[in-house]
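Q: Protein A?
A:
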Amino acid sequence: MQRWPYVISDHEILLRPLRYRDRAIWHQVRKENAQWLAPWEATRPAIESDGPLPSFFEMVRYYNKEGRELRSISLAIWLQSEKGEIFIGQITLGGIVFGAYRGAHIGYWIDQRYSNRGYTTRAVKALTEFAFHELQLHRIEINLRPENAASRKVAEKSGYHYEGLRSRYLHIAGDWRDHLSFVAENPKNFN
């Protein structure tokens, strides 16, 4: 089995951990896509104990620690071209649990300029394949807002099937929002 840092490729799509030197491009893409992502981005409920958001460097350190300990695998999505690598988004296999459950969930975001081109679907398929074969997970969920038609298409095209509604599941855009749950199960039966 591979060890951290995981690198997954699918033709011109490359999934790899963020590095400190990716700070400028990550901030630029996030800033350019702030309005595009706002309706779907997780927010934090107003709880007094929450401190400020981490810096980019703290975020990368946290992602590396979580990846090494196999609790969460957060990877940048890069498009490889003749001009080099272009940062186009991020994908996370989070909430990894082994034991009797052997499951996780996938979340992702994509730069609006690269949406509707199949890149997100390919990233989800590649990370799902990695999770099923390398980590031998049994079940992976994608939870998405009912009004996010593009994300629903990604889940369905990636082989996930609709399982049900999760009421007030996640804090998004300042309130607890309902989510649709899509699931894929490992076709290999580990007994």
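Q: Protein B?
A:
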Amino acid sequence: MRYSEQFMEHIEYAFNAFCKIVLRHEAINAWRDLKRKEAREVSLDYLMSERCFEPFSMDSYFERQEKPTVFLVLGKEVIVDDERLAMALSRLPQLRREVLLLYYFVGYRDEAIGRLYGRCRSSINRRRNVALKQLRKEWERLKHEE
């Protein structure tokens, strides 16, 4: 079926009008977003001129007087800065402590830890969960001792 020349021209004009309306509304939305952003944000130059502060911070990992505790796991040194956490970890059996340290501090997954110890992933996962429960009990015990 062929459309007449007049009908095709009408379709073109209608599509052109539709595109103009969509673009106009998108421009309005962009303008509103910019105004909303401008109302909520504060310029860094303004902050620097109004208040005298340093726009940075320094990490203080090892600035304490107490020495961090170092655990050796499979030839890797794991540094624990918190004294109570180090004490609670030291009270755990060696395998449970190593599983926790490898998972949370070194970043190994259960499968990789299982390959290291010759166990399956689910066994390591169960050991880790049991170790976490025991660590939580030791943590609470140390908290009450203080």
